[in-house]
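Narrative summary of target 7.
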Amino acid sequence: MLGEALRGRRAGVVVVTKFGEDPIPDQEDPLALDARVVGRKCEASLRRLGFECIDLYLLHRRDYALEQAPALMQALKDLVRAGKIRYYGWSTDDVERARLFARGEHCIAIEHRLNVFNDNAAMLDLCREQDLASLNRVPLLMGVLTGRWSSETKLEESDPRAQWFEHEGFLKVLACAQEIEPYLARDGRSCVQGALGWIWARSPLTIPLPGFRNMEQMQELAQARQFGPLPLEVMQAIAERVKSA
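Modeled conformation, tokenized:
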């Protein structure tokens, strides 16, 4: 779908995709990654996209063994030399793993969890030190920071998300999210736009990666940029309330 949408519109668009989490059939270790497997995965993505080169290729194994990472980095370096990818990075919340990958000449980004309730100051420090882009997954905490859920929310038993509401910790986060809504929605922002503004205020290197289901949601996300980062005093007020939650 992405390849079809970008056909004839490739200029000026940065395309990022991941590899490593989907198992390879008929393999002794279905999650093993070596140069051959990584090459196969890259070629498959290029074929599906209809591209000659991927801008940013992310390892999607957050727990990938550190001792095996150097060999994987060499495989990615070979893909850069072959013109199959331009840059690479790692999707991980572990700073040690990210630091190892950051040694690579063509490593330019780390994807990690970052939102109002899941900060990662050490990773942001690393991104600043190594001049890496900080790509932020779950920036809206699976709907918690959109106002979608409340303690009264009722989901079908077959919905796996129904289990969230059985945990006291999740309910506390929901209650805190409702408490900080007025701070996120300062200056005419929506809560969603405020949640993105919080991320931008944490570091100028951050690039939140929110999902959307329709054009209205997409437009709301795109318009968040006009507000920019949250002001310092708002960030401090939010921090105090999250800390006490």
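The longest helix spans residues 168-184.
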